[in-house]
Design goal:
heterodimer; A: 127 residues; Rossmann fold; 4-stranded parallel sheet; globular; B: mainly alpha; Serine Threonine Protein Phosphatase 5, Tetratricopeptide repeat; two-stranded antiparallel sheet; 10 helices
């Protein structure tokens, strides 16, 4: 199953998004990487890296980020881990996490989930 | 111009300067960002300082790459990947060198500027650290071509860097958190342009 990682500046936000996905996809392989080691807001290179490693399999890992340094720090982790099948999704965090976890549990491939997440980016709420 | 011992000394002083200016940098970040620039950079350079004793006999490339990696791992905000990439790319330009000339120093800075542009997907006039870095680099290239001594080259760089930081007050940010604040950011000096100017000033004062 494709693994998922939720990167946020906030430890609680990342954990809550992970918890929230269990509502519809409780068997998803998903890990939070939120906040800094001391509990303050920020994005931690180590936390992102170890979260990716914790959910990694040859099916691949998709990382969803909130904003700013979450994106840049994840980019650097991926550059360092060069090689394995890991990608960042360019979409809203909560919607993306829900859809990706359902798709992963449903047995979709790495590429298929990334395509699903591309569509999430275009999703409207009031239409 | 500079050898390992000098670079390590400069890095230590940069840490002291950032610590000293921590409150001010955080204050600058308050109205337009998430109020953490000073705190984050001080934490990062605090960790850098702990690594410096292990780098004393290393080449400049290794020193800079280690500093960059430490900043990426410990800063926690956008300045981590940005300064981290900048130091690492400068380190690549100085790979294997035990000493650098002014020309090589500027090549390193050039690589650092490119790294920040690429990592932040940003360019000048967007109210970021690039608005200090790019004019500083240009001014130093011009001063260096006139075969000025290192001190006068760095003086030209610092002047342009501070002018660039000042100029960010007139710009509406389109990158980073400050872009969310939009026009309300006018009149506020960018914290990243300011921290870069402090760093360059430390290099100048160490010569």
């Amino acid at each position: 199953m494709v693994g998922l990682v939720i990167v946020s500046h906030s430890e609680n936000l990342a954990k809550s998004v992970v918890e929230f996905t269990s509502m519809m996809a409780k068997d998803a392989v998903i890990a939070p990487a939120g906040g800094l080691e001391d509990g303050s807001f920020g994005t931690s290179f180590e936390r992102i890296q170890s979260a990716i490693e914790s959910v990694y399999s040859e099916d691949g890992v998709i990382v969803l980020m909130d904003l700013g340094s979450a994106v840049m720090t994840t980019e650097m982790v991926l550059e360092m881990m060069e090689g394995p099948k890991i990608a960042m999704a360019d979409c809203p965090l909560v919607e993306g996490a829900v859809i990706a976890s359902i798709s992963a549990v449903g047995g979709k491939s790495f590429e298929e989930i990334l395509q699903d997440l591309d569509k999430v980016r275009e999703m409207r709420k009031l239409q | 111009m500079a050898e390992g011992k000098f670079v390590i000394e400069v890095l230590k002083k940069i840490g002291e300067k950032i610590e000293e200016q921590k409150e001010y940098l955080t204050e600058l970040d308050q109205p337009i960002g998430d109020s953490d620039h000073g705190i984050n950079l001080a934490r990062g350079f605090g960790e850098v300082e702990k690594k410096l004793p292990t780098l004393e006999d290393k080449d400049l490339g290794t020193i800079m790459k280690t500093v960059g990696m430490t900043l990426v791992s410990t800063v926690g905000g956008a300045s981590g990947p940005l300064y981290g990439s900048a130091f690492m790319k400068a380190g690549m330009a100085w790979s294997g060198k035990m000493e650098i000339t002014m020309e090589e120093f500027l090549e390193g800075l050039d690589a650092a500027v490119e790294a920040v542009k690429q990592r932040g997907k940003a360019t000048v006039e967007e109210a970021t650290m690039l608005d200090a870095m790019v004019p500083a680099l240009e001014a130093m290239k011009t001063a260096g071509n006139g075969a000025g001594d290192a001190k006068s080259v760095l003086e030209a760089g610092c002047k342009a860097s501070w002018a660039g930081a000042e100029h960010t007050k007139d710009l509406v940010a389109t990158k980073g958190r400050a872009s969310y604040v939009g026009e309300r950011g006018l009149g506020h000096q960018d914290p990243g342009a300011t921290s870069f100017s402090f760093m360059l000033e430390v290099v100048k004062d160490s010569l």
